[in-house]
Amino acid sequence: MNGTKPYSLPVLATLMRLFATEQHRRRKRHSERRSALSQCFPWHAQATVPALRECAFNGVVLSGIAIIFDRAGQAFGGRLQTHSEVVYG
């Protein structure tokens, strides 16, 4: 190991304990921050934010409904126009 001695087992155990404790502190701070944010901004909570897939699907569905109503309206307008030409033309 390039002339250096490896750590002894008690030193490694202490380092691992310190690392795990620090990771636990970071996770706890992150969850506290997230819960504080979700109290201030309810839409920021994990459960209420829709996934990108759901948003994209809702957009496609809404566009499809708009296209269907547009085509139905155009067909109805065309029928009205031909009817008015036949009756009043």
How would you describe this protein?
This protein is an all-alpha fold. It folds into 2 domains: 49 residues; 40 residues. Helix content is 78%, strand content 0%. It has 2 helices and no strands. It is rod-shaped, with a radius of gyration of 32 Å. The N and C termini lie far apart (100 Å).
Structural descriptors:
mainly alpha, single chain, 2 helices
Main sheet makeup: none
Number of strands: 0
Low-confidence stretches: none
In total, the number of domains comes to 2
Instruction: Tell me the distance between the termini.
Output: 100 Å
Helix content: over 70%
CA-based gyration radius: 32 Å
Share in β-strands: under 5%
Helix and strand element order: HH
- Overall pLDDT score: 77
Globular, elongated, flat, extended or rod-shaped: what is the shape? rod-shaped
Tally of helical segments: 2
Structural class: mainly alpha
Q: Outline of this structure?
A:
This protein is an all-alpha fold. The protein folds into two domains: 1-49; 50-89.
Secondary-structure topology with pairs:
Layout: H1 9-40, H2 52-88
